[in-house]
Amino acid sequence: MADGKKLWIYLGVGCGVLALLTVCGGGSGIFLFFRAMGEPVAYARGFLDDIRERDWHDALQRMNAGYQNTHVEESFRQSAESLPALVQHTDATFTSHSSANSTAQVEGNLTTPSGPIAVAMTLTKHGDHWYIDTVNVAGQPLP
Hints:
By secondary structure, the chain is of the alpha+beta class. The protein has one domain: Nuclear Transport Factor 2, Chain: A (Roll), CATH 3.10.450.100. About 55% of the residues lie in helices and about 30% in strands. A hairpin with a 2-residue loop joins β3 (about 115-125) and β4. The radius of gyration is 23 Å and the shape is elongated.
């Protein structure tokens, strides 16, 4: 009888350990997936925060090299101000994002005094950073 009880105890402990490893492994996988997908969203949010704070220098630094080569801070400011919802937004909510290799697309809405306005950005990863290639607000590209 004692041997039968030991068998059930070992079986129960083994199943418990297996369940714990499965939960931890699955949780780690989900965490890593969302962390990788969250990076482009975090960079896009940082860009929008810089715009909202009128930090033209830092916002421009988040744009890709080609854009930076054709814009100085003043021309960038003028380009941003040509999209009123971009400079007037008070918050941003991203509702979708996708990533393939080193390119990502994020989409969502800007909260503005006129109501929600659609925003979409494409980003490319170079080294450890994501740089913004395009910004579209209500279908209008950032010049």
